[in-house]
Amino acid sequence: NSEHVARRGALIVLEGLDRCGKTTQCGRLVSFLEGRGLPVEAWRFPDRNTAIGKMISSYLMNNTQLDDQTIHLLFSANRWEKRLLMENKLRNGTTLVVDRYSYSGVSFSASKGLDVNWCKAPEKGLIAPDLVIYMDISPEEAAKRGSYGIERYEQLDFQKKVAHSYQILLDTTWKVIDASLSLELIENQIQELALETIESCPKMPLSSLWI
Length: 211
Ligand code: NYM
Description:
Elements: E1 11-16, H1 22-35, E2 40-44, H2 51-60, H3 68-80, H4 83-91, E3 95-99, H5 102-110, H6 116-120, E4 131-136, H7 139-144, H8 156-169, E5 175-178, H9 183-200
Parallel strand pairs: 1-3, 1-4, 2-3, 4-5
The structure holds 3'-deoxy-3'-aminothymidine monophosphate (NYM).
InterPro entries: P-loop_NTPase, Thymidylate_kin-like_dom, Thymidylate_kinase
GO molecular function, one term: nucleoside diphosphate kinase activity
Protein name: Thymidylate kinase
């Protein structure tokens, strides 16, 4: 009897170049949804807390070297190790706001010259998001937002390639937001998209990425 079936939560993913404002907006969205009394959690990938996440973090901080295929598969494994928990949370009604997901995985690795389909393969079977928000900013403008950190990838030339790779993945279901607007304008647009998605997604079964 459908009346007794609990509403599932929504999987909401924010994507974009480094310094596009994703992390700030994820935090604001989670606070907003909490304020409305909705069950919600902030997630991010890479999740640097696991053993695999620590290897990724060390690589990003340039403390270890790994070849491109190996780090790609570690990023993917870091999503796989959280997949079951993710499914359980969603089925129990918790909405997850996720800072980066498989699209970062493919875009960053493809920007190093790896084949896009090779990059997508290990992501197949992960849970497909109900909403992907792409925070669109030019690499030049992102670079102006204070200096990049010291982590790998945080360089203008590389970010230009990542922007191009995202364009290859972008499909009509993504919601593209102009990330050069004010924090408040962006926040309002994201809130609206998130509420619509949380309202409508329980009617849709969970589905898998790229199969
Ligand atoms: N990144 C992130 C990848 O290269 N592949 C992935 O699968 C994911 C999730 O890691 N520059 C890159 C993008 C970022 C870096 O992310 C760390 P953050 O959001 O700065 O912690």
